[in-house]
Specification:
With 483 residues, the protein is mainly alpha-helical. It has a single domain, classed as Up-down Bundle (Amino acid/polyamine transporter I). Helix content is 75%, strand content 0%. Helix 1 runs antiparallel to helix 13 and helix 4 packs parallel to helix 13. The N and C termini lie far apart (53 Å).
Length: 483
C-alpha cells in the first residue's frame, strides 16, 4: 500500500515540479494569439475555457488504455508502478505538453504535418498513414471494449450488435458536428462519472486494506516474461501514449491562451497516470496474485477484471457506477479518435471542414473500415494497437526534440524518452510474433543498431535545420496565407 500511495504522491509532485521545468524550457508566450482565435471556423477552431478544455483533454486521452493496459501490466508485479510514475512524469506528460504546445504554435497542426516540418517531408506521408492506422485501431478497440462491458452489465439482455450500432451512431454524430455541440456539452457529465468511479475504486482499496503488493527487490517482478520491452508496450496510455499526439491538436485548436498548456496537456496526463495506478493496484491485490489475475484475464479479458473488481470494492450499485465510468473512458476517446482521423485526412488533402458534406465524405469510409475490424479478435487488435501506439509516441518525441534543438533549448527532455522508446518499440516488433519473430537477443542487437542510426540521422538533420534557422513557429503574419 505504501508503494501505491507514494506513487500517487510522486505523480502530483511531478506536476508541480518537473511540469514547471518543462513549461519554462518551452517558453510560454501569453501575448501570442492562439489558433482558436486566429483560425476560427466555428467547427474545429473555436475558443473554449480552460476547465472545459482540461476535462475534454482528459476524456480524449483516457480511453481503456489507462485501465486495460495497467490491468494486464499488473501481471508483471509492482515494477508496473515504476513505469507508470516515471513514464508519466518524464515521458508521457512531456510528450503531451510538447505536442500540444508545438501544435498551438503551428496553427493547430496534427502530428503528420509536424513530422513533415521537423523530420522531413517524406515523414509527413509515413506518419499520416501511421496515424490513420492507429486511430482506426483505437476507434475499433474503443467500440468493442465498451460494447462488451455494457453487454455484460446488462447480462446479455441487449444484443452486442445493437450496442455496437448505438455506439457507432454516437461516434458519427460526434465526428461530424462542431466540437461544442456534443463533445463540449456531454463531457462534463461524463467527466463526473469518470472521476467518481476512479476515486471510488482508489478510496475503497485503501479503506478495505486491500493487499496491494509493495515494491521490494524480491517482489519487483514475479512474472516470467521479460520486462523489456513488453511492459513498456502493455502499459501505454497510463505512462506514455502516441494516441495522445493525435488528440492534443483537437484541444490546441480550442485553447484560449498558451499559459493554459501545462494544466491542459501536462496536468491531464498526470491525472491519467493516477487512474492507471488505481487500476494496476486493484488488479494486483484482488485476485490472489498473478496466477488468479491471469486466470480471470484468460476467461473474460480486462473487462471481466473491471467488473469483478468494481463489484468487490463498491457493491452492486457502486460497482455498476464504476463500470459505467470505465465505459465512458473508451467512448470519449473513440469519438475523438474518429474526429482526429477526419481532421488529419482533411488537412492532408487540404479540404476545408466548414461544410458538413466535406466532413461526411471523409469520415464515412473510416467507419466502414472500423466496422470490418470489429470482427477481429480483441487480443490481436490490442497487440497491433500497442505497437502502433508507442511507435507514434516515438515519432512525436523526436518531433519535440527537433523543435527544442532548433530553438536552442534543452532538447534532452524529449530525446531521452525518445531514445528509450525507440529501443523498446524496435525490440518488440523484431521479436514479436506479429512482427519479425526473431530471438530476443537478436532483437536487442537489431534495436540498438536502428536506435543508433536514428540518433545519427536526428543530429544530422537538427544541425542542418539550426544552421538554416528553420522557422519552428508559424509567424502570425502567415496565418492568413497558411489557412
Amino acid at each position: 500500500m505504501y508503494t501505491f500511495m507514494a506513487g500517487i504522491a510522486l505523480l502530483v509532485v511531478g506536476y508541480f515540479t518537473y511540469g514547471k521545468i518543462v513549461e519554462r524550457i518551452f517558453g510560454v508566450n501569453e501575448q501570442r494569439q492562439t489558433p482558436a482565435y486566429s483560425h476560427s471556423d466555428g467547427v474545429d477552431y473555436l475558443p473554449m475555457n480552460k476547465k472545459k478544455n482540461m476535462l475534454i483533454q482528459l476524456l480524449n486521452i483516457a480511453g481503456v488504455g489507462p485501465i486495460f493496459g495497467p490491468i494486464m501490466g499488473a501481471l508483471y508485479g509492482p515494477v508496473a508502478f515504476i513505469w507508470i510514475v516515471v513514464g508519466c512524469i518524464f515521458a508521457g506528460a512531456v510528450h503531451d505538453y510538447l505536442t500540444g504546445m508545438i501544435s498551438i504554435r503551428n496553427r493547430g497542426a496534427h502530428l503528420p504535418e509536424l513530422a513533415g516540418k521537423f523530420l522531413g517531408n517524406g515523414m509527413k506521408h509515413v506518419v499520416n498513414a501511421f496515424a490513420i492506422l492507429l486511430l482506426l485501431l483505437v476507434g475499433t478497440v474503443f467500440v468493442t471494449s465498451p460494447a462488451a462491458l455494457l453487454h455484460n452489465l446488462m447480462d446479455g439482455a441487449v444484443g452486442l450488435g445493437v450496442i455496437l450500432g448505438a455506439i457507432f451512431i454516437y461516434y458519427l454524430l460526434a465526428t461530424f458536428l462542431p466540437i461544442d455541440k456534443i463533445i463540449g456539452k456531454l463531457y462534463p457529465a461524463f467527466g463526473a462519472l469518470l472521476l467518481i468511479s476512479a476515486v471510488g475504486v482508489g478510496v475503497m482499496l485503501l479503506v478495505t486494506g486491500a493487499p496491494i503488493p509493495e515494491l521490494t527487490l524480491t517482489n519487483m517482478h514475479p512474472a516470467s516474461a521479460p520486462i523489456f520491452p513488453l511492459l513498456f508496450l502493455t502499459i501505454s496510455c497510463g505512462a506514455l501514449s502516441g494516441f495522445h499526439a493525435t488528440q492534443t491538436p483537437i484541444i490546441s485548436r480550442t485553447t484560449q491562451n498558451e499559459r493554459h498548456g501545462r494544466k491542459i496537456f501536462y496536468g491531464m496526463m498526470i491525472a491519467e497516470g493516477v487512474i492507471a495506478m488505481i487500476w494496476a493496484a486493484a488488479a494486483m491485490s484482488l485476485f490472489q496474485g498473478p496466477v488468479g489475475l491471469n486466470e480471470l484475464l484468460a476467461s473474460g479479458g480486462p473487462a471481466a477484471v473491471v467488473s469483478e473488481a468494481s463489484g468487490l470494492l463498491l457493491g452492486a450499485i457502486g460497482g455498476t457506477l464504476a463500470v459505467l465510468g470505465v465505459i465512458v473512458l473508451p467512448i470519449t476517446s473513440g469519438d475523438t479518435a474518429f474526429r482526429s482521423a477526419r481532421m488529419i485526412i482533411a488537412d492532408y488533402l487540404k479540404v476545408p471542414q466548414k461544410k458538413l458534406l466535406n466532413r461526411i465524405w471523409i469520415a464515412l469510409p473510416l467507419f466502414v473500415v472500423s466496422f470490418a475490424l470489429t470482427k477481429i479478435d480483441f487480443t490481436i487488435l490490442w497487440r497491433y494497437f500497442s505497437w502502433a501506439n508507442q511507435s507514434t509516441a516515438v515519432i512525436a518525441l523526436w518531433v519535440g526534440a527537433m523543435y527544442l534543438f532548433v530553438a536552442k533549448k534543452n532538447y534532452w527532455i524529449a530525446m531521452i524518452p525518445g531514445i528509450f522508446m525507440t529501443m523498446a518499440t524496435m525490440t518488440y516488433i523484431l521479436n514479436a510474433g506479429i512482427g519479425f519473430g526473431l530471438s530476443l537477443n537478436v532483437s536487442y542487437i537489431g534495436a540498438v543498431i536502428v536506435t543508433l542510426a536514428v540518433i545519427a540521422l536526428f543530429y544530422r538533420s537538427a544541425v542542418k535545420a539550426r544552421a538554416n534557422e528553420m522557422p519552428i513557429d508559424l509567424p502570425m503574419k502567415d496565418w492568413e496565407q497558411a489557412a
